[in-house]
Design goal:
alpha/beta; 4-stranded mixed beta sheet; 44% helix; globular; TIM Barrel
């Protein structure tokens, strides 16, 4: 037990009862999670998240932090939706819209393959020109020409759109895509499940019941998937907790979620900046820690360095995250909205970021099979968490 948790459990600390639940492996409640968000004791919250992460990792893997050698592909940025927080498919930028041919998709994929990637993360806009046959051809061609690459593709939003476009069920669409070569699904498109927030942000796509249904079907068909939450779009802390609880409930039912990814919104090119409060670094760290504590049935929590930035993502590893995503290559969606993080990180740089944060870098594949454990010994950190927090506040 860490000194922080030991003190909380054995004293009248305001979070003592929650700390005792975490220590004993008891599932925390909605009210507990809200209290954690309301607390200003960030070191204690981080210690609880870290304790939950180590226990989830299991013996011998307590310091493992995963990454993958991957790239992003976005075959089209045209989208029929007009979510107010999105710059990637901004209607005012439609003159810059593109749709790649299948040959262009394979050409871009081959560039990543030449660099040694083993996963492609492929998502795009909702484009009527990109129908089911188009995506089936991409998957089949990829499998024929680059069979070693795992295709993680299609958010639940894209599956819903394709089903409506083709007059098919979600299960029928997923079966077609799996047959063509789909390996797993990302978690994008969840945004925040609260309907009032979605209405303010003009999010008409894929409400919570449909998002959860599609992921549940995918799990039953054998696909592993991820899940996300987007913050900084006028949501409350209660909205965030309720979002996580719906995902936890779905995981109890179908068990196929691998990883939860808390995301933050970027506002460049949107008209919502005057209506929202950008999440602070402390709030983003709470998202990581509280998700690790609350979502006890999710194997992994990701510190997505593209959105958090490298320094905050490193610190998030001490708050319960055990994954930093990957080397990524060119990423368009977040950078279209103003993210200033690097466009890619080489494998050796990714490992250096993890080991210098005090953790063991582990290269994984998409479904968390270990490819290689870094031979580099993690740095021993002697600086207290309060000092490290002060550097990013």
């Amino acid at each position: 037990m860490s000194a922080v948790i030991e003190k909380a459990v054995s004293s009248d600390h305001p979070l003592g009862d929650i700390a005792e639940k975490v220590y004993n492996g008891t599932r925390i409640s909605r009210e507990d999670a809200i209290r954690l968000y309301q607390s200003d004791d960030l070191p204690a919250i981080g210690a609880l998240g870290e304790f939950a992460r180590r226990r989830k990792a299991g013996p011998g893997k307590e310091k493992y932090v995963y990454y993958i050698h991957n790239m992003h592909l976005n075959p089209t940025n045209f989208c029929v939706e007009t979510c107010r927080f999105c710059s990637y498919a901004n209607p005012s930028e439609r003159s810059k819209a593109y749709t790649w041919t299948v040959d262009k998709v394979i050409e871009e994929a081959r560039k990543g393959s030449d660099l040694g990637i083993n996963e492609i993360h492929m998502v795009g806009g909702l484009n009527p020109a990109c129908n089911l046959a188009y995506y089936e051809e991409i998957l089949r061609t990829m499998r024929a020409k680059l069979p070693h690459i795992h295709m993680k593709a299609f958010t639940a939003v894209e599956i819903e759109y394709l089903a409506n476009l083709e007059g098919m069920t979600y299960e029928e669409v997923l079966k077609c895509l799996i047959e063509a070569g789909l390996g797993s699904m990302p978690g994008g498109g969840a945004e925040i499940f609260d309907e009032e927030v979605r209405e303010r942000m003009a999010v008409k796509k894929t409400p919570a019941p449909i998002y959860l249904e599609i992921h549940g079907i995918a799990h039953k068909l054998g696909l592993k998937t991820n899940a996300t939450m987007l913050t900084g779009i006028s949501e409350t802390r209660e909205n965030k907790v309720d979002h996580m609880l719906l995902l936890r409930e779905q995981q109890d039912k179908t068990g196929g979620f691998q990883c939860f990814i808390p995301l933050k919104c970027y506002y460049e090119g949107t008209n919502i900046q005057s209506e929202v409060v950008e999440p602070s670094a402390s709030e983003l760290l709470k998202d990581v820690a509280i998700s690790r504590i609350l979502m006890d049935n999710f194997p992994h929590i990701k510190a997505y360095w593209i959105q958090l930035g490298v320094e905050l993502a490193q610190l998030a590893l001490s708050f319960g995250a055990d994954d930093m995503d990957g080397t990524i290559g060119e990423e368009k969606i977040t950078h279209a909205a103003g993210a200033k993080s690097p466009l890619q990180l080489a494998k050796d740089k990714m490992e250096q970021l993890i080991t210098s944060a005090g953790y063991q870098a582990v290269e994984r594949d998409t479904i968390y099979n270990i490819r290689q454990v870094s031979a580099v010994t993690p740095v021993e950190l002697h600086e207290p968490i309060s000092t490290r927090l002060a550097s990013i506040s």
